[in-house]
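Budget justification, computational time. The allocation requested in the original proposal was used primarily to generate C-alpha cells for proteins on the priority list. As evidence of use, we reproduce two of the resulting records. The first is shown immediately below.
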Amino acid sequence: MPFTASQIAEQLHGEVLGDGSVELTGLASADGAKPGDLTFAEKETYFAAAEESQATAILVPGGFASSKKVLIRVPNPRVAVARLLPVFFPPDQHAPGVHASATIAPSAQIDPTAHIGPNCVIGPRVRVGARSVLMGGNHLGRDCQIGDDTCLFPNVVIYARCQVGHRVSIHAGTVIGSDGYGYVFDEGRHRKVLQVGNVIIHDDVEIGANSAIDRGALGSTVIGQGAKIDNLVHIAHNVSIGRHCLVMGQVGFAGSTRLGDYCVIASQSGIAGHLKLGHQVTVGAKSGVMRDIPDKGTVLGIPAAPDKQAKRQMIAVQQLPELIRRTRELEKQVAELKARVGS
C-alpha cells in the first residue's frame, strides 16, 4: 500500500521538505533503493549516497537540504525506520482457530481469538490469551499461562507452570523452564536436586532462537519487562533480569545472579553465579564477570575489570614484546660490562 510523503511525515511527527504528494511504496537502504522507495541517512557521507540513489525520498535529521530528493525531517532517522518497518512490511496475520493436528487438554483455556498451529501440544489447565499465536510444534506444559498478543515461533517449548506475559515474542527452538543445573555430591555420585520452580517472563520481552531459560530451583527465574535477549543465550536457575536489559548472543548466566534495569551484556560474555549487577551496567564482549558491578559500571576482559583499568592492561600487554626486547638488550649490556670489569 503506497503512502504519500506527507502521510509518512504526519505519522512520524516530522516535516516534509519538497513535494509532500509523492507516493512511497517501500523502505530500503540507499544501495538497494529503487524509485518509490524511502531511504534514510544520519550523516553527511550516508546522505551523499542516498542523494545519488534511486530512492524517491530520504529520512534525515535536522540540517540537511536537497535539490534532488524529497526529504522527511525527523528527530532520529533510525528510530523513524524502526517505526516505519511494520507499516511497509506488516507482520503475517494468523487466523483465529485451532489446527486439527493440535492436542489440547480438556481443562486448557484457549481464547477464541488465539491461533494454535499444527502439532501443538497444550497441557492441562494451560491458559492462552487473546490474539496469541502458537505457530506450530509448540509444547506447553501443565498450568502454563500465556498472555495476550504473544507469539511462539515454531518448536518453542514451555515447561510446566511457567508464565509468559503480554506482547512477548519467543523465537524458534527456544526452551523455557528446562531444569536448572543442580546437583549435590552424595555417596560417591552426583545426586540431582529437583528443580521445582518456574520461569516468569514479563510483558514486551523478545527472546531469540535456540536460547534456554532454566526454571528456578525453588522460586522463579525472572525476565523483566521489555528485556531483549538474543539467540543462543543461556539463563540459569533463579537468575533475575531487570527491565529493558539487552543481552547479546552466546551469553551465559550462572545461577541466582541478579541484573538491574537497562543493563547491556555484550556477546560471548559469561556471568558467574550469585552476583549482583546494578542498574545501567555494561559488560563488554567476551568478558568473564566474577564480581558484583555497581550501578552504571562498565567492565571488560577476563576476569572483567572496570573499563579504564582493563584498557590500560590491554595496552600494557601489547607493549610486552618491546619491553622484553629492551630487557634482553639491557641484560646483554650488563653482562658485557661485568666481563670488562672482571678482566
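The second record produced under the same allocation is shown here.
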Amino acid sequence: MFKKREMNMCEGAILKKLIVYALPLMATNVLQLLFNAADVAVLGIFKGDAPVGAVGSTGALINLIVGLFVGLSVGANVLIARCVGENNEKRARRIVGMSMLISVVIGVLLSIVGIVFARTFLSWMQCPENRIDLATKYLQIYFIGAPIMLLYNFCASILRAVGDTLRPLIFLLISGIANVGLNVLFVTVFNKDVEGVAIATITSQAVSAVLSVITLLKGKGFAKLELRRIKIYPKELLMMIKIGLPSGIQGCLFSLSNVLIQSSINAFGGLVVDGNAIAMQLDGFIFTSMNAISLSSLAFVSQNLGANNYERIKKTLWRAIGLVVVVGVVVSAIIMAISPAICSFIADSEDVANYALIRVYMIASTYFLCGIMDVLSNSLRGLGRSALAMSLTLIGTCLLRVVYVWTVIRSFKNLYLLYAIYPISYVISIVMFVIAYVPVMRSIKRQIANKKEILQMQENPA
C-alpha cells in the first residue's frame, strides 16, 4: 500500500512521473550547489582568491573519499525500491534500520581517515604550497562532520527509493539558508576564512540530518525507521554491499581520475587553480541537473524490476535518456550565457576569470554526453548489474583518463587538451554501455519471464 508521499513507479505515464520525481531532486541538487557557490562567493568577496582556490582544490579529494562510502546508500536505495515493487514492507524497514547504523559507523571511520591524512592526500595531489595550509584546515574540519553527512545521504536515499523527493528538498532548503547565514557570520563577523565556511557546512548538514531522521521515525510506509530494527541483517547487508560497494568503488575510481586531472591543473599554477575552482561551481549545476534524471532512472528501474515489468524498464531507459539530453543542453546553454558575468564578479583578476571561462565553455558544450553515460550506468545498477557498471566506468573513464594524462598531457602541457579528456571519455563510455546492454536486457527478460512462470505455477498448481 502506497502512502501519501510515496510514488508507485510501476504504473502510469512514465515520462510524467519521471519529471515529477526528478524536479524536486533537481532543485535539491541545484540548491546544494548554490549554497556551495555561496561558500566560494563569500570567500572570494571578503577574503580573496587564495581561500577560494584552497577550497576548490579539495573538491576532487572529498568526492574520492566520500564517494566510496556513499555508494552503499545507493545499495539501500535499490533494495528498498525493489521491496516497494514487491510490496514487501517488512523487509524494507529492516533495510532502513540497518542503513542508519551503517551510515554512522562508516561516518566515524571516515572522520578519522580524513582528519589524520588530510595534508598527506593534498600533498599527493600536488596542491600548491601557497594553498595547502588553508586546504588542509578546510578538509580536516569538513571531515569532522562525516557521520552527519553520511547519515543525511542515507536518509535522503531511502526517501527517494519510495518516491519522496520533496521532503529532502525542503530539508536542504532549510539547512542551506542556515549555511549561507553562518558563512557570512563566521567570515565577516568572526573574521574566519576557510574554517568558517567548513564549520558552517557541517552545522547546516546537521540540521538536514536531524530533520531527515525525524521524518523516518514518524513515517508509516516502506521508509519507516523502527528503533528495534537498527541492527545488522546479514542477508540484506550482503545484498547492499553487492550493489552499493561497486557503486562506491565506481564513484571512487571516477573521482580518482578527477584527482589526477586536478593534480595536472595544479601544475599550471595558482591562477589556473583559482579559475578552475570557480568554473567547477558553474559546470556543477549542469552535472547535478542531469544527475537528478539518472538517479530517477535508478529508482524507476529498481521498482519495476521488483514488479517484474520488463517493458516498463525499457521505456524508462529511453525516456530517461531523452530527458537527460534536453536538460543537459538547456542548462548548459544557460550556464555558458551567464558565466562571463559571474566569473568576473567572483574572481579578483581578469586572468582568473579567463581561465574559469576556458573550463566552462569546454565542459558545458558537451556535458549532455555525461548525462547519457550516467543514465546508462545508474539504470544498469538498478538492474542489479552494479559490478558491470563499475567495470565499464573503470575502463571508459578512469583508465582512459589516467593513460591520457600520463601520455598526452605530459608530452603537451596544454590546458585545452587537458579539458578535452572529459568529452572523449564520455563518448567511449557510452559506446561500451550500449554494447553491454544488449546481453543484459536479454538476461533480464528471461529472468522476469521465469519469475512470472514460477508465480503462475504457485497460483495455479496442477
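A brief technical remark on that second record: The chain has one domain: 14-452.
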